[in-house]
Amino acid sequence: MLVIHACNVVKEYALNGLTVRALQGLSLSFEGGEFAAIAGPSGSGKSTFLHLAGCLDTLTEGSLSVGGADVAGLSKKQLALLRRHSIGFIFQAYNLIPVLSVMENVCFPLTLLGVPKKEARERSRAALEDVGLGGMENRRPKEMSGGQQQRAAIARALVKRPALILADEPTANLDSKISRDILELMLKLNQKEGTTFIFSTHDMMVMEFARRIVHIRDGQIEREEVK
What we know:
By secondary structure, the chain is an alpha/beta fold. It has two domains: 1-67 and 163-227, 3-Layer(aba) Sandwich (Rossmann fold); 95-161, no CATH class. The protein has seven helices and ten strands. It has helices at residues 46-53, 76-86, 102-112, 117-130, 146-159, 176-193, 204-209; strands spanning 2-15, 18-31, 35-39, 61-66, 69-70, 87-90, 164-168, 196-201, 212-217, 220-226. The strands form two sheets. Strands 6-7-8-3-9-10 form a six-stranded mixed β-sheet, sandwiched between helices. Strand 7, helix 6 and strand 8 form a beta-alpha-beta unit. The longest helix has 18 residues, at 176-193.
């Protein structure tokens, strides 16, 4: 089943009175269960595509379906429900809630899904253990390093066991050992649960793990590799 299907997608932004095209007629699809990377230089459109696929932004032209639903035909409420139930997003900027503890941040998406408090805390504690943050449950984001905050953001994305995880440069703030451990954890989840992972990355280690790599430049596909 196609999890994401983009056809002739154009995304334009207004910047200093000028119109900038981040994506220029990009057509790209991903099947369920893929472990794939989108690679390219800064400004190539990688993050823009992930934000569109994650229903966090709207396209300018073309069509895009996520989980079989045409996102252009969904209301804001329907888009929010799709994100809440089916998509996990790992942001470059972490997007942790500063006034909440790490445990509360990881529990947050489960709370939105109505998971009972005890189960939510158990699942969140296990997710934090998986990313090497056991014992840090009560820390606030400001009390953690950038790498620790990134791992907390990864735990938050994994904890609700979504069908699709979109990861925007997820290893950017991690050392090589932690990066490999996290990627192995994600690959295990992909193989065991069939979770679809799509990364945007510059990291050669991510590309080493990915089974498909889509190289883009200037908002268009340059080439693809399938292992």
